Amino acid sequence: MDFSSIVVQFLNGLAGASSLFLVAAGLSLIFGVTRVVNFAHGSFYMLGLFLAYSLAGRFGGTPTGFWISLLVSALVVGVVGALVEIVILRRTYRSPELFQLLATFAVVLVIKDVALAIWGADSLLGRRAPGLSGSFQFFGKVIPAYDLVLIAAGPVVLGLLWLIVRRTRFGRLVRAATQDREMVGALGVNEAWLFTGVFFLGSFLAGLGGAIVLPREPANLSLDIAVIADAFVVVVVGGMGSLPGAYLAALLIAEVKALCIAIGDVSMFGYTVSFSRLTLVVEFVVMAVVLVVRPYGLLGRPSATPRAQVAIMAASRPPRGRWILLVIAVLAVAPLLIDRYSIVLLNDVLVFALFAASLHFFMGTGGMISFGHAAYFGIGAYAAALLLKRAGLQMEVALTLAPVAGGIAALFFGWFCVRLSGVYLAMLTLAFAQIAWSIAYQWDALTGGSNGMVGVWPAAWLADKAAFYWLTLGVTVVGVLWLWRMASSPFGYGLRAGRDSPLRAEALGIDVRRQQWFTFGVVGAVAAAAGALYAFSKGSISPDVMGIQRSVDALVMVLLGGVHSLVGPLVGAAVLTWLQDEIIRDTEYWRGLLGLAILALVLLLPQGLAGARDLWRRKPA
Amino acid sequence: MTVLSASGLVKSYGGVKAVRGVDLRVDAGELLALIGPNGAGKSTCFNMLMGQIAPDAGRVELLGADITGQAPRRIWRQGVGRTFQITATFASMLVRENVQTALMSRHRRLGNLFLSATKLYAEGALALLERVGMADQAERPCSVLAYGDLKRVELAMALANDPKLLLMDEPTAGMAPTERQAMMALVAKLARESRIAVLFTEHDMDAVFTHADRIVVLNRGRVIAEGEPADVRADELVQRVYLGGGTMFGHV
Questions:
Q1: Which of A64, A318, A494, B46 could form a disulfide with A484 if both were Cys (CB 3.0 to 4.6 A apart)?
Q2: Both A335 and A455 in a single domain?
Q3: Distance from C-alpha of A99 to C-alpha of A602, rounded to nearest angstrom
Q4: Neighboring chain B residues of A313 at a CB cutoff of 8 Å
Q5: Could you tell me if residue A283 is inside a domain?
Q6: What is chain B's Cα-based Rg?
Q7: What is B144-205 written as a DSSP string?
Q8: Is residue A26 in some structural domain?
Q9: Average pLDDT, rounded, for chain A
Q10: Which of B71, B74, B104 sits opposite A490 (nearest CB)?
């Protein structure tokens, strides 16, 4: 590693920071004004890149045509964003905040399949910019000329945004709404069009962020999730609602990544550490460190008007004992009546019901949101597999110890997370989940890397699908009943007290932070039990078991079923698992259909599936 | 017997000296009112006593023990109950469960993850609700209660720890005039019966002069008068401060 390669990587980092900043700035604006955590923001980026690929491919032969193509791509994405706001989100502002999250998940799924239908599943590298396709020498290294455009783009857009926010009426409203949305509404501002305008601007920025990397990055269908994770990190590190903060954070993260690549392999104490492969981990480590030192990000401030973070949920009572017994009885005899395929499917339903129930306890009773719940599921699965294959323990022992591993990991992550609250806490859970994921993905020697591990089979007496199903049923019933009991245990009361009114809880001698920390451990252990069952039921695992997609699935299950009801996550898990299985068999566009189904539910049943029952009975909530 | 004594409390925010050297003392069974115009430093004083904010200088003692700057939950354990200016109760719970939670915390039972708590300390909770006149509403959700009733629930929760001291920030704010008198009469009765020291702030002068045993008047971060209601009422400086004689912005 010499000086020139550091400089080259530094410039590379600068170029990477610009696109990241555009996406993050849009996300930050949208969250600041509307309080919507827009999961579809990465999809807007991806859409911008795909559109630019097609438009520039057709009209980009001349410099004018090329640049106009990029701009038009971004504008189209802006219009798509505005339409999403008008058609979908506008109807959900009165629902609990989490429903907007669910709606944006659905948009992610729909956009992904639209892109699949139009552009296909292969990576597409776009045309180079006419006139800028060359490169130049710098300290003896080659730098693409287009990188200079990227390096300039970030500060230029930051300046333009600053002018809009500081010098226009629209910008003044944006700033006012970021500080106190309700007050802006009370002053007679037409909120509806302000929100639409902000969605247009934010989506335009995401689209532009995607379009300008056309000559540098290939367009592909996995960008949406990858980019949204990056954008979350940048927004949170920079401080919600702070544009200069977002640029600073984008720069910090892009440079740290570039530095890792520049360092390359380093030998220390006989071990070789490959820094260039640690970029994923490093990004999230930066985030974790910044958040622990500055809980509101580099340039962020505590929200001026803290409102309730999670819609307050009345603790619903569990169903009556005889109904519980009936359901268990039906589930217990089911394997005698159905075919092998259905037993496996029902086994999946039970595993995910337990997983979703643990997230539901975390959100409903604990009042915290987790964007990274799959971490504990995955750690349970990997712990089971590693104990079985690498430590050579018996399957029964591995299954018993996996929840312990999950609980300990969750306590470790939770120790950092409970120092934050609200969306910041949620983002930090995502960061830890990504760290866990990248360790599983990159530590080939231990975890098998991206291939994962095979031959994770249960003991001989459980080899039969029905036998394993009964084991799953037993663990799930015990786990779910314990979670239900815990919601009405003294611990549950204390937790709800801290959720409803932290001020009052502290004034009654309750250590709210410690209660939340324990909650991490408890739900981590339960989720890990579900993960271990999953590993043994499939016989193999891969890093996908703790990918973002699985965390999102868990959130969808909980929200779909309804946060208000203890039965909700179980219903949600059953419906989502069944839907996925059912649609996958019939069409390659199952994600899009699933997304549309979720959107229909969000718009028609804002209380979730289990809430539909109350609607029907007309019972006051 | 002196329950609470604070001496030399100081707190600045940037260049603003919110509280500049306040001494306070409350005896068992006594109602002490802390009054003063807006910005006089009442809330800052209050929050320092309860541990919400740490004083820059000064000392707070509870029954002779130093509690300066301790966390609210530790101060509560030593026998200080509190009610807030804007009521803070657990909206997802029944009235009875609110008080049960307070009792569970008192008896350090909140670490139990297995026991059903629906009946735990239910009788004790009902007894406390009886004392504040809320027993008939015990089974209603807290979220549907009238504001004045919520204040009573808060009081019941504050009493759950058999407090030696009650800190009440505007106990009658947002109540109708008749409700105010009833509330203050209830607090006075509880203080006499159980020998609780009560320190409260209040904007309603009727409530203050009818029920307080002693009054401390703050202005611009300092105590400008202290004594029995009749003396404070006659104090010329207090009259000027309250009737707008310009002292708020001049030198006192």
A1: A318
A2: yes
A3: 7
A4: 92
A5: no
A6: 19
A7: GS-HHHHHHHHHHHHHTT--SEEEEESTTTT--HHHHHHHHHHHHHHHHHHT-EEEEE-S-H
A8: yes
A9: 86
A10: B104
pLDDT value at residue A563: 78
A217 and A326 in one domain?
Answer: no
Same-domain check for residues A470 and A340: yes
Note whether A195 and A335 are same-domain residues: no
| Chain A residue numbers touching B154 (CB-CB < 8 A) | 504
A212 and A338 in a single domain? The answer is no
Where do we find the tokens 């300066």?
Answer: B68
Residue B33 · residue B214 · CB < 8 Å: yes
Note whether A506 contacts B72, CB cutoff 8 Å: yes
Query: Which residue on chain A is closest to B77 by alpha carbon?
Result: A509
- How much is the pLDDT for A13? 87
Distance (Å, whole) CA A129 – CA A219? 16
Residue of A609, A606, A417 lying closest to A523 (CA atoms): A417
Residue A367's alpha-carbon distances to A309, A311, B13, B199, in angstroms, are 8, 8, 32, 33
Fold of B1-79+163-252: Rossmann fold (3.40.50)
Tell me, yes or no, whether A503 lies in a domain.
yes
Give the residue numbers spanning the domain of A115. Answer: 3-221
Contacts of B161 in chain A (CB under 8 A): 508-509
Domain end point (choices A167, A191, A221): A221
The pLDDT of A485-501, averaged and rounded, is 93
Residues A214 and A325 in one domain: no
Which residues of chain B, if any, have pLDDT below 50? 246-252
Do A24 and A164 reside in the same domain of the chain?
Answer: yes
Domain boundary among A178, A204, A221: A221
Could you report the per-residue pLDDT of A80-119, keeping only the tens digit for each? 999 999 999 988 887 766 778 888 989 999 999 999 999 9
Write down the pLDDT at residue B250. Answer: 45
- The 10s digit of each residue's pLDDT in A145-198 is 888 889 999 999 999 999 998 888 888 888 888 777 778 878 888 888 899 999
The number of C-alpha atoms within 13 Å of A542 and in the hemisphere containing its C-beta is 3
**How many domains in chain A?**
2
At residue B9, the 3 state secondary structure works out as strand
Strands A453-454 and A271-274, by their bridges, are: unpaired
